[in-house]
Amino acid sequence: MKLHEMIDQYLAASPEITGTQRSTLLRMRGEDIGKRTVPLTPKHIIDHMKWRNQNVEPATAAHDVIYLRGMLEYAGIGLGIEGVSTAPIDEAMPILKRQRLIGTSNTRTRIPSPEEHAAILARLNGINAEVVAFQYESGRRISESCRLQWGDLDAEKRTILVRDLKHPRIKSGYNKRAALPDPAFDIIQRQQRLTTAPDERIFKAEKKTVEAAYRRAVRACGFSDLHLHDSRAAIVTRLLDAGYTEPQVMLVTLHDTTRMVRSRYNRLKADDFPRRAA
Fold it and tell me: Does one domain contain both 90 and 147?
Protein backbone atom coordinates (compact mmCIF):
# COMPACT_ATOMS: atom_id res chain seq x y z
CA MET A 1 0.00 0.00 0.00
CA LYS A 2 1.18 3.50 -0.86
CA LEU A 3 0.92 6.28 1.69
CA HIS A 4 -1.50 8.25 -0.51
CA GLU A 5 -3.86 5.24 -0.44
CA MET A 6 -3.70 5.17 3.36
CA ILE A 7 -4.45 8.88 3.48
CA ASP A 8 -7.52 8.35 1.30
CA GLN A 9 -8.78 5.57 3.57
CA TYR A 10 -8.05 7.55 6.70
CA LEU A 11 -9.88 10.66 5.54
CA ALA A 12 -12.83 8.64 4.27
CA ALA A 13 -13.12 6.98 7.68
CA SER A 14 -12.70 10.29 9.54
CA PRO A 15 -15.20 12.88 8.28
CA GLU A 16 -14.67 14.89 11.48
CA ILE A 17 -11.16 15.80 10.30
CA THR A 18 -11.34 19.24 8.75
CA GLY A 19 -9.32 22.40 8.32
CA THR A 20 -5.54 22.36 8.51
CA GLN A 21 -5.27 18.66 9.32
CA ARG A 22 -7.27 17.59 6.28
CA SER A 23 -5.58 20.05 3.92
CA THR A 24 -2.12 19.00 5.17
CA LEU A 25 -2.79 15.30 4.55
CA LEU A 26 -4.31 16.00 1.14
CA ARG A 27 -1.20 17.97 0.19
CA MET A 28 1.11 15.19 1.41
CA ARG A 29 -0.71 12.56 -0.65
CA GLY A 30 0.42 14.37 -3.81
CA GLU A 31 4.04 14.82 -2.75
CA ASP A 32 6.93 12.36 -3.01
CA ILE A 33 6.25 10.93 0.44
CA GLY A 34 2.73 10.07 -0.70
CA LYS A 35 4.24 7.72 -3.28
CA ARG A 36 6.19 5.79 -0.64
CA THR A 37 5.18 2.28 0.31
CA VAL A 38 3.89 1.77 3.84
CA PRO A 39 5.43 1.14 6.33
CA LEU A 40 7.58 4.23 6.02
CA THR A 41 11.20 4.39 7.16
CA PRO A 42 12.84 7.11 9.29
CA LYS A 43 14.71 8.21 6.16
CA HIS A 44 11.42 8.80 4.36
CA ILE A 45 10.35 11.13 7.16
CA ILE A 46 13.68 12.97 7.29
CA ASP A 47 13.88 13.41 3.50
CA HIS A 48 10.35 14.76 3.39
CA MET A 49 11.03 17.24 6.17
CA LYS A 50 14.24 18.46 4.50
CA TRP A 51 12.24 19.09 1.35
CA ARG A 52 9.45 20.88 3.28
CA ASN A 53 11.96 23.16 4.99
CA GLN A 54 12.98 24.53 1.60
CA ASN A 55 9.57 26.20 1.39
CA VAL A 56 8.24 26.77 4.92
CA GLU A 57 9.44 27.49 8.44
CA PRO A 58 10.18 24.56 10.81
CA ALA A 59 7.08 25.36 12.89
CA THR A 60 4.86 25.00 9.83
CA ALA A 61 6.68 21.90 8.61
CA ALA A 62 6.10 20.29 12.01
CA HIS A 63 2.40 19.98 11.16
CA ASP A 64 3.27 17.24 8.67
CA VAL A 65 4.82 15.13 11.42
CA ILE A 66 1.98 15.80 13.86
CA TYR A 67 -0.80 14.82 11.45
CA LEU A 68 1.13 11.91 9.98
CA ARG A 69 1.67 10.54 13.49
CA GLY A 70 -2.04 10.80 14.23
CA MET A 71 -2.90 8.86 11.10
CA LEU A 72 -0.33 6.13 11.79
CA GLU A 73 -1.62 5.75 15.36
CA TYR A 74 -5.12 5.20 14.00
CA ALA A 75 -4.30 3.05 10.97
CA GLY A 76 -3.45 -0.20 12.75
CA ILE A 77 -6.72 -0.68 14.61
CA GLY A 78 -8.97 1.84 12.88
CA LEU A 79 -8.12 0.78 9.33
CA GLY A 80 -6.86 -2.74 10.01
CA ILE A 81 -3.53 -2.12 8.29
CA GLU A 82 -0.86 -4.45 9.64
CA GLY A 83 2.73 -3.44 10.35
CA VAL A 84 1.95 0.26 10.71
CA SER A 85 3.19 2.23 13.73
CA THR A 86 4.66 5.56 14.70
CA ALA A 87 8.12 3.97 15.12
CA PRO A 88 9.60 5.64 11.98
CA ILE A 89 8.62 9.07 13.31
CA ASP A 90 9.91 8.25 16.79
CA GLU A 91 13.27 7.17 15.35
CA ALA A 92 13.49 10.22 13.08
CA MET A 93 12.67 12.75 15.81
CA PRO A 94 16.22 13.18 17.21
CA ILE A 95 17.49 14.04 13.73
CA LEU A 96 14.54 16.32 13.00
CA LYS A 97 15.23 18.24 16.20
CA ARG A 98 19.04 18.31 15.85
CA GLN A 99 18.85 19.60 12.30
CA ARG A 100 16.03 21.99 13.29
CA LEU A 101 13.71 20.60 10.67
CA ILE A 102 10.82 21.01 13.11
CA GLY A 103 10.22 23.76 15.62
CA THR A 104 7.67 25.85 17.43
CA SER A 105 6.19 29.08 16.19
CA ASN A 106 7.42 32.40 17.48
CA THR A 107 5.08 34.04 19.96
CA ARG A 108 3.54 37.19 18.52
CA THR A 109 3.78 40.27 20.70
CA ARG A 110 2.07 42.75 18.37
CA ILE A 111 -1.34 44.00 19.48
CA PRO A 112 -3.46 46.82 18.02
CA SER A 113 -3.51 50.00 20.07
CA PRO A 114 -6.87 51.72 20.66
CA GLU A 115 -5.87 54.32 18.05
CA GLU A 116 -4.95 51.67 15.48
CA HIS A 117 -8.16 49.76 16.17
CA ALA A 118 -10.20 52.94 15.64
CA ALA A 119 -8.39 53.66 12.38
CA ILE A 120 -9.07 50.13 11.12
CA LEU A 121 -12.74 50.32 12.06
CA ALA A 122 -13.04 53.59 10.13
CA ARG A 123 -12.02 51.67 6.98
CA LEU A 124 -14.73 49.06 7.49
CA ASN A 125 -18.50 49.15 7.26
CA GLY A 126 -21.58 47.04 7.90
CA ILE A 127 -21.25 43.61 9.40
CA ASN A 128 -17.48 43.50 8.86
CA ALA A 129 -17.05 46.50 11.15
CA GLU A 130 -19.36 44.98 13.75
CA VAL A 131 -17.49 41.66 13.83
CA VAL A 132 -14.06 43.31 13.99
CA ALA A 133 -15.27 45.51 16.84
CA PHE A 134 -16.58 42.41 18.61
CA GLN A 135 -13.24 40.65 18.12
CA TYR A 136 -11.46 43.50 19.84
CA GLU A 137 -13.84 43.54 22.80
CA SER A 138 -14.53 39.82 23.28
CA GLY A 139 -11.29 37.98 22.58
CA ARG A 140 -13.08 35.32 20.57
CA ARG A 141 -11.50 33.60 17.60
CA ILE A 142 -13.07 34.78 14.36
CA SER A 143 -14.45 31.32 13.57
CA GLU A 144 -16.14 31.26 16.99
CA SER A 145 -17.67 34.71 16.55
CA CYS A 146 -19.19 33.76 13.21
CA ARG A 147 -20.83 30.69 14.82
CA LEU A 148 -22.39 32.41 17.83
CA GLN A 149 -26.13 31.78 18.13
CA TRP A 150 -28.94 33.83 19.67
CA GLY A 151 -30.22 30.82 21.57
CA ASP A 152 -26.90 30.49 23.40
CA LEU A 153 -26.93 34.06 24.74
CA ASP A 154 -27.85 34.63 28.38
CA ALA A 155 -28.62 38.36 28.30
CA GLU A 156 -29.29 38.54 32.03
CA LYS A 157 -25.93 37.10 33.03
CA ARG A 158 -24.14 38.50 29.96
CA THR A 159 -22.63 35.18 28.98
CA ILE A 160 -22.76 33.10 25.83
CA LEU A 161 -22.14 29.45 25.00
CA VAL A 162 -19.25 29.15 22.55
CA ARG A 163 -19.54 25.98 20.51
CA ASP A 164 -16.78 23.85 19.01
CA LEU A 165 -13.89 25.57 20.74
CA LYS A 166 -10.43 24.83 19.44
CA HIS A 167 -8.89 21.90 21.33
CA PRO A 168 -5.78 19.83 20.52
CA ARG A 169 -7.57 16.52 21.07
CA ILE A 170 -11.31 17.18 20.83
CA LYS A 171 -12.28 17.84 17.22
CA SER A 172 -15.90 18.87 17.76
CA GLY A 173 -18.46 19.33 20.49
CA TYR A 174 -16.15 21.11 22.92
CA ASN A 175 -18.48 23.83 24.19
CA LYS A 176 -17.97 26.30 27.05
CA ARG A 177 -19.82 29.35 28.34
CA ALA A 178 -17.90 32.61 28.13
CA ALA A 179 -18.32 35.86 30.00
CA LEU A 180 -18.96 38.88 27.76
CA PRO A 181 -17.24 42.14 28.70
CA ASP A 182 -19.77 44.96 28.63
CA PRO A 183 -18.59 46.46 25.28
CA ALA A 184 -18.81 43.02 23.62
CA PHE A 185 -22.31 42.48 25.03
CA ASP A 186 -23.39 45.89 23.73
CA ILE A 187 -22.22 44.99 20.22
CA ILE A 188 -24.32 41.81 20.31
CA GLN A 189 -27.34 43.75 21.54
CA ARG A 190 -27.32 46.04 18.51
CA GLN A 191 -27.36 43.13 16.03
CA GLN A 192 -30.69 42.46 14.34
CA ARG A 193 -32.41 39.21 15.21
CA LEU A 194 -34.52 38.06 12.27
CA THR A 195 -36.26 34.97 13.69
CA THR A 196 -37.02 33.25 16.97
CA ALA A 197 -34.96 30.21 15.97
CA PRO A 198 -32.35 29.49 18.67
CA ASP A 199 -29.73 28.52 16.07
CA GLU A 200 -29.92 31.84 14.20
CA ARG A 201 -26.43 33.27 14.02
CA ILE A 202 -25.85 36.57 15.78
CA PHE A 203 -23.35 37.85 13.21
CA LYS A 204 -24.46 37.19 9.64
CA ALA A 205 -20.87 37.11 8.41
CA GLU A 206 -18.42 34.60 7.00
CA LYS A 207 -14.97 34.09 8.50
CA LYS A 208 -13.03 34.47 5.25
CA THR A 209 -14.97 37.59 4.24
CA VAL A 210 -14.24 39.35 7.54
CA GLU A 211 -10.58 38.33 7.44
CA ALA A 212 -10.20 39.65 3.89
CA ALA A 213 -11.87 42.95 4.79
CA TYR A 214 -9.61 43.30 7.83
CA ARG A 215 -6.48 42.70 5.74
CA ARG A 216 -7.55 45.37 3.25
CA ALA A 217 -8.21 47.85 6.05
CA VAL A 218 -4.88 47.08 7.72
CA ARG A 219 -3.00 47.64 4.46
CA ALA A 220 -4.86 50.88 3.83
CA CYS A 221 -3.87 52.10 7.30
CA GLY A 222 -0.25 51.02 6.87
CA PHE A 223 -0.39 48.51 9.73
CA SER A 224 0.84 45.57 7.67
CA ASP A 225 2.14 43.69 10.72
CA LEU A 226 -1.30 43.38 12.38
CA HIS A 227 -3.43 40.24 12.20
CA LEU A 228 -7.10 39.94 13.15
CA HIS A 229 -6.21 37.32 15.76
CA ASP A 230 -4.04 39.92 17.53
CA SER A 231 -7.29 41.33 18.92
CA ARG A 232 -7.47 38.29 21.19
CA ALA A 233 -4.22 39.32 22.82
CA ALA A 234 -5.42 42.92 23.01
CA ILE A 235 -8.43 42.16 25.22
CA VAL A 236 -6.39 39.89 27.48
CA THR A 237 -3.78 42.62 27.94
CA ARG A 238 -6.43 45.24 28.67
CA LEU A 239 -8.17 43.05 31.23
CA LEU A 240 -4.91 42.23 32.99
CA ASP A 241 -3.94 45.90 32.99
CA ALA A 242 -7.35 46.74 34.48
CA GLY A 243 -6.61 44.49 37.44
CA TYR A 244 -8.57 41.35 36.56
CA THR A 245 -6.97 38.13 37.78
CA GLU A 246 -5.84 35.41 35.40
CA PRO A 247 -8.76 33.10 36.38
CA GLN A 248 -11.17 35.98 35.73
CA VAL A 249 -9.60 36.64 32.32
CA MET A 250 -9.99 32.94 31.51
CA LEU A 251 -13.76 33.31 31.96
CA VAL A 252 -13.63 35.55 28.87
CA THR A 253 -10.97 33.84 26.76
CA LEU A 254 -11.86 30.26 27.81
CA HIS A 255 -8.23 29.18 28.04
CA ASP A 256 -8.01 25.90 29.95
CA THR A 257 -4.97 26.88 32.02
CA THR A 258 -3.43 30.07 33.34
CA ARG A 259 -0.14 29.16 31.66
CA MET A 260 -1.21 30.56 28.29
CA VAL A 261 -2.52 33.75 29.83
CA ARG A 262 0.59 34.17 31.93
CA SER A 263 3.25 33.31 29.34
CA ARG A 264 1.78 34.55 26.06
CA TYR A 265 -0.11 37.67 27.07
CA ASN A 266 2.06 39.03 29.86
CA ARG A 267 3.35 42.37 28.53
CA LEU A 268 5.50 43.27 31.55
CA LYS A 269 9.01 44.48 30.75
CA ALA A 270 12.13 44.73 32.89
CA ASP A 271 11.60 48.44 33.49
CA ASP A 272 8.13 47.68 34.95
CA PHE A 273 9.76 46.14 38.02
CA PRO A 274 8.57 48.14 41.06
CA ARG A 275 11.31 50.08 42.85
CA ARG A 276 11.36 51.31 46.39
CA ALA A 277 11.13 55.03 46.84
CA ALA A 278 14.53 56.69 47.26
Answer: no
